[in-house]
Design the sequence.
């Protein structure tokens, strides 16, 4: 019980302090661009818990989910392919690094030509950014498969799908999860970026609209919403990770204790 | 250019260093030209021109004192002003040509489009570079004028450079483009269905130069000199379109043959106050503004 | 019959060249139990990996029942020296034992029986649902052994399988291996650096020199087939054979130093 | 060998982008073939403005990266070494990390306008998290036996950081730097593009606003080349700094 | 004098409670050589970590030369069971041995001498510039031993230090440890699960029961101080003592099972 309280206390302590500092430091603010936190909190509800939730927030999240899922499939698939073949890796690495370095905002016009200006384009933008951390981590994970396990599979003639499922993917999964986690924060950023260019609704679009319309407290409430969203998704992620990687965390702890 | 001499700074000492935030588009040719011609220097103003992405970024920079002056379309300024930002117009920016079918900006459709007039846009999608701003306000004005219901038109935000391709591939039904993208759409066979800036108001002031209330109260005399220099620049540009075209090539990447073809805006020295009021009324009607703007406080 | 003929292996990587095995030849009769001893780093693991078809030799060949070994042959199981790394940490103990049987297409009921039997045999009947990392080193090693037993191989290669277990457990496992060998009629090659263990377990002990590795001696262990920890180790013949091996290794070591 | 294969990969990619518009697979007007882009690039290379922009971009990028790495390492080691601090900060880090750096654009513009400083802040903010998170993982990865060894031989705090914490965290730091280098580059260009601070991004924006498609692609190619260079450099550094690490030992095939 | 008084250790983590040590008390005279044997998992490593001040006991105390041990005391060296993880992979062999000396502020020339001597003593005179991971397991363990020797500790704790080395090397290292002990006059606590080794090495053998751990027997080894692998192991008294220990352990094991 006390352990739970300690954990909750540790998790909430600093955020509470920081929010309090912000609250009081901004209380009398007359700076147009740094409104009092109070004002921001006041506009938060009316701004987001109305039509906007359905019209802007949910579609954005839907696109994020679609893009993220596609990036996961693509990244893991390509990562396994590239990671398990030295030649493919050598040939593709510079091209991948080249593509990775191109900022998504300059990619948007190109993607528009390919996928139009609808949801397809925005999902592609999200994929184009999310795929890299997943891909690179998968490649690294697949390369790091333990040699003894590899030999074990060979001698026991564990091949084909059984090998992919029980050796390659599982042993790469901690790295894949690391990549997937990074991709999540990248995904939120790209959700915003994808709505910066060709949109008429969406969470990112709305925040930018607030910025351009000089509705600064509303804009801040959007930034906070994005942060909260990040926390929420990362908590969700942790739950999933706990399921997928319980063996990993267990074995790590065991190793440390031994 | 008239009456500019009387404001010439008597104190020939140190020049006032001034940064002006501009957007790399045709509209700001006069200030580039003015700087080159020495209209600012002779009033003891040392101008640095900073290119920013759009008016929305320039407004905060001017308010925070990063820039002393900035260039922005009037709807952005109306919005900023209505939200309580201390901005003040100091000079005209640029106006539509006022000639229907021959403006520097146009509402356009592709060659094979069934759309004939702006009224046909009901239920269709129009691309605008930003929403809740001057472009969609102007397009709605065209729809109204053609007898359509502007609330039935859907807008999607799309930067000007992407619009020609989006139109060609049928992703949007119409675009509202400025030069040089008007040339690009024409090049792919597009048709103009309305000159929305012309439809909005006669000789509409599209954009203007502005400053912050702080600069205005701390250094009204500098603002006055800047206004005079700007006015001289505007008039000069208006009178010397070839020189304006030449200078456009220096701060943009627009191909030389395109620069030769584009329709230039008009650059009158004075703000068309009625047109600003008219835009403010439309913005109120369209819901951009929640209450009537105090246009008088914003105007120079 | 497992035949090792003129086997040589050179590792060359990072500009470093190690001749792990010089020139090795020996035969292992089908169904026999051969122990291999040799100093640390003499190439025992390397030899085993070549026999398993996991490592291509630099020279020479390995033949199993007449056909050359180029990849892991069917019906072969290996218990690796690095037991900790040869179990799948994401699979429970029972699933670890089960996986090779699934790969071999054994049906579910049969698999279940084999897994239960094997885990019981190594004394882990109650650890089915544990993860390998929840077990001690010795227990992990026993899981690896259970996996090999359940697989019912025709050839079983074991690489220092008891290095991590305590004396008592070790004795139990030694007896287990012998009984499995007798029951299944498997061909067993057992690598160890414990001389007593080699003499106690095998029908033959092959002693290797330190690298470049050759066969120093191939000793037949003429102890009775029925062995147990107390009487066998007390047998004077056991002491004698053990002394032979010690002396041989001492000699090999001195030669190695002289070279 | 690998370098040659990589070059072949790049050449193949270039060829693909040359052929696709030529055979009409994609509209040539918006997808100029590689040769056109390279031709345009050759033209740009001759101009001073191009090199000034490259200088600005590289400066912002490397400076931002350096600040982010230094900050990430120091903060990461400090937080990671004290379990209580680690526990107390983790929720805050989780909150701040996903706040999109693009959401900060209006903020930095207010503070610093369309200057390099604005872009720099974005770059540091985005890259910092990459390094920090990696360093935190790295510090948490210290082997308990190694830690006990250090303690039992009474290595002092400094010696422990120098000989235990730092080498343990180093592989993670290197990964962090690799990730951060790309993120920093992307944010540099994006910042220049959106905020309008001087650099390649601004040239890209100008090219876009002018409808100069090949020029825009030429500049994008330059960004990509920077990305490849960053990878080459960090890879080489990795090989030197981590030659003892298992991943590097396995680099040469057996 | 090292005194362990009423020592108990309970691991409680993840809702799991393991009583690793029940109630242990014994004393180790300064300069004496004590071996500790006990079944796997009985808490030998836990005991050693408490003695080294690396782990706070749940109950009881450890006292060294009169002062209670709360952190690693000066002049103490530990050779860890997980030798592979106690060497720093980023330091070369010589630097691994050197590091504790640098931390202790020994001057360069002296350090150099100590490192050279220690590595020579364990037979790794030519491995100075290798990295630990380039060595076989047995060689790595010897590096850890060399590091402890070079440190010239007053108290040396060794946790199954020879588990990974072959029989011959093991014999050599056993003799090395005895000679170091005699030469430096160090207080030596040596954990092993090899009964022969414990009897051969120590002046006393402390036998532990399986958990919750207590002292099953504390046996004085009255073999002459001059020992060597052949004569000592052949000595009938050796066989007798060895038998005593075996019987005791067997007993403890049966008791453990009965409980
Ligand atoms: N992958 C490798 N690359 C280079 N050298 C290697 C490799 N594997 C083993 N060696 C070297 O080959 C020699 C034989 O190694 P091997 O592992 O076969 O010895 P071993 O007899 O099994 O030793 P141990 O008793 O310690 O397990 C050693 O000198 C070792 O350093
Ligand atoms: N950090 C820990 N957390 C929980 N339980 C532990 C921890 N360390 C050891 N144990 C448990 O305490 C008991 C004693 O462990 P310890 O490592 O001291 O045994 P040992 O005698 O050294 O065994 P071995 O001979 O296998 O090295 C075991 O049951 C073990 O599972
Ligand atoms: O300045 N304009 O937005 O056209
Ligand atoms: Mg081996
Ligand atoms: Mg132990």
Sequence:
């Amino acid at each position: 019980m006390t352990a739970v309280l300690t954990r909750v206390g540790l998790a909430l302590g600093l955020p509470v302090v920081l929010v309090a500092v912000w609250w009081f430091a901004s209380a009398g603010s007359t700076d147009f661009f740094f409104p009092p936190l109070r004002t921001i909190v006041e506009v938060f509800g009316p701004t987001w818990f109305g039509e906007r939730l359905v019209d802007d927030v949910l579609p954005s999240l839907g696109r994020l989910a679609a893009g993220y899922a596609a990036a996961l499939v693509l990244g893991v698939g390509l990562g396994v392919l590239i990671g398990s073949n030295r030649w493919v890796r050598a040939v593709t690495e510079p091209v991948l690094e080249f593509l990775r370095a191109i900022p998504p905002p300059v990619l948007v016009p190109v993607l528009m030509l390919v996928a139009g200006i609808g949801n397809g384009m925005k999902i592609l933008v999200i994929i184009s950014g999310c795929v890299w951390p997943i891909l690179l981590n998968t490649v690294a994970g697949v390369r790091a498969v333990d040699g003894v396990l590899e030999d074990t599979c060979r001698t026991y003639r564990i091949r084909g799908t059984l090998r992919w499922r029980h050796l390659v993917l599982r042993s790469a999964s901690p790295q894949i999860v690391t990549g997937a986690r990074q991709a999540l924060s990248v995904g939120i950023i790209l959700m915003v970026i994808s709505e910066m260019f060709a949109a008429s609704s969406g969470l990112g679009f709305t925040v930018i609209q607030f910025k351009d319309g000089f509705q600064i407290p509303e804009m801040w409430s959007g930034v906070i919403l994005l942060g909260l969203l990040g926390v929420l998704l990362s908590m969700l992620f942790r739950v999933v990770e706990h399921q997928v990687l319980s063996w990993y965390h267990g074995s790590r702890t065991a190793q440390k204790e031994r | 250019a008239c009456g500019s001499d009387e404001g010439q700074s008597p104190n020939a000492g140190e020049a006032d260093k001034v940064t002006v935030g501009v957007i790399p588009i045709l509209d700001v040719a006069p200030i580039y030209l003015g700087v080159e011609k020495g209209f600012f220097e002779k009033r003891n103003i040392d101008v640095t021109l900073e290119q920013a992405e759009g008016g929305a970024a320039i407004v905060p920079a001017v308010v925070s004192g990063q820039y002393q002056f900035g260039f922005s379309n009037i709807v952005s300024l109306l919005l900023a002003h209505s939200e309580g930002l201390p901005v003040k117009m100091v000079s005209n920016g640029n106006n539509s040509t006022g000639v229907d079918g021959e403006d520097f900006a146009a509402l356009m459709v592709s060659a094979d489009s069934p759309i004939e007039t702006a009224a046909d846009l009901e239920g269709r999608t129009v691309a605008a570079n930003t929403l809740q701003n001057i472009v969609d306000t102007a397009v709605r004005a065209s729809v109204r004028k053609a007898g359509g219901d502007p609330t039935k038109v859907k807008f999607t935000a799309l930067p000007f450079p992407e619009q020609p391709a989006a139109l060609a591939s049928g992703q949007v039904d119409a675009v509202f483009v400025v030069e040089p993208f008007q040339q690009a759409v024409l090049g792919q066979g597009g048709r103009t269905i309305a000159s929305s800036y012309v439809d909005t108001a006669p000789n509409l002031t599209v954009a203007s130069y502005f400053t912050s209330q702080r600069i205005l109260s701390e250094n009204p005399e500098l603002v006055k000199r800047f206004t005079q220099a700007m006015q001289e620049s505007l008039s000069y540009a208006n009178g010397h379109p070839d020189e304006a075209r030449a200078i456009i090539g220096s701060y943009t990447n627009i191909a030389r043959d395109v620069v030769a073809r584009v329709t230039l805006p008009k650059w009158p020295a004075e703000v068309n106050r009625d047109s600003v009021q008219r835009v403010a009324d439309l913005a109120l009607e369209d819901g951009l503004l929640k209450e009537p703007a105090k246009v008088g406080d914003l105007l120079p | 019959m497992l035949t090792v003929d003129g086997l040589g292996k050179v590792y060359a990587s990072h500009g470093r060249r190690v001749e792990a095995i010089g020139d090795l030849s020996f035969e292992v009769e089908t169904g026999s139990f051969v122990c291999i001893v040799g100093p640390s780093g003499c190439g025992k693991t390397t030899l085993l990996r070549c026999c398993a078809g996991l490592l291509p030799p630099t020279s020479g060949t390995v033949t199993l029942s007449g056909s050359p070994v180029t990849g892991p042959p069917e019906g072969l199981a290996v218990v690796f020296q690095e037991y900790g790394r040869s179990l799948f940490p994401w699979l429970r103990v029972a699933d670890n034992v089960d996986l090779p049987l699934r790969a071999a297409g054994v049906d579910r009921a049969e698999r279940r029986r084999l897994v239960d039997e094997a885990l019981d045999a190594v004394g882990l009947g109650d650890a089915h649902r544990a993860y390998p990392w929840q077990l001690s080193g010795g227990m992990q090693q026993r899981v690896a052994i259970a996996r090999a037993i359940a697989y019912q191989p025709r050839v079983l290669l074991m690489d220092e399988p008891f290095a991590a277990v305590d004396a008592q457990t070790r004795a139990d496992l030694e007896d287990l291996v012998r009984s499995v060998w007798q029951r299944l009629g498997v061909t067993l090659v057992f690598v160890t650096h414990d001389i007593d263990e080699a003499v106690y377990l095998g029908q033959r002990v092959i002693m290797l020199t330190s690298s470049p590795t050759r066969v120093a001696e191939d000793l037949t262990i003429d102890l009775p087939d029925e062995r147990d920890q107390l009487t066998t180790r007390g047998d004077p013949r056991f002491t004698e054979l053990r002394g032979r091996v010690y002396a041989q290794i001492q000699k090999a070591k001195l030669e190695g130093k002289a070279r | 060998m690998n370098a040659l294969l990589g070059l072949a990969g790049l050449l193949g990619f270039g060829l693909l982008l040359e052929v696709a518009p030529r055979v009409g697979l994609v509209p040539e007007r918006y997808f100029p073939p590689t040769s056109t882009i390279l031709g345009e690039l050759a033209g740009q290379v001759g101009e001073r403005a191009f090199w000034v922009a490259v200088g600005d971009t590289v400066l912002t990028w490397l400076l931002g990266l350096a600040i982010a790495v230094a900050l990430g390492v120091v903060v990461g080691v400090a937080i990671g070494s004290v379990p209580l601090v680690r526990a107390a900060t983790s929720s805050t880090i989780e909150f701040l990390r996903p706040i999109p750096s693009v959401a900060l654009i209006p903020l930095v513009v207010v503070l610093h306008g369309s200057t390099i400083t604005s872009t720099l802040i974005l770059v540091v903010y985005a890259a910092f998290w990459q390094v920090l998170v990696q360093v935190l993982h790295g510090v948490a990865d210290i082997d308990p036996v190694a830690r006990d060894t250090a303690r039992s031989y009474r290595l002092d705090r400094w010696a422990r950081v120098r000989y235990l914490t730092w080498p343990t965290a180093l592989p993670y730091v290197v990964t962090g730097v690799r990730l951060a280098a790309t993120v920093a580059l992307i944010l540099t260009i994006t910042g220049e593009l959106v905020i309008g601070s001087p650099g390649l991004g601004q040239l890209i924006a100008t090219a876009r606003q002018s409808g100069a498609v090949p020029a825009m692609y030429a500049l994008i190619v330059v960004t990509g080349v920077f990305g490849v260079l960053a990878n080459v450099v960090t890879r080489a550094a990795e090989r030197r700094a981590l030659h003892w690490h298992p991943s590097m030992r396995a680099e040469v095939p057996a």
Observations:
- The mean pLDDT of chain E is 87.
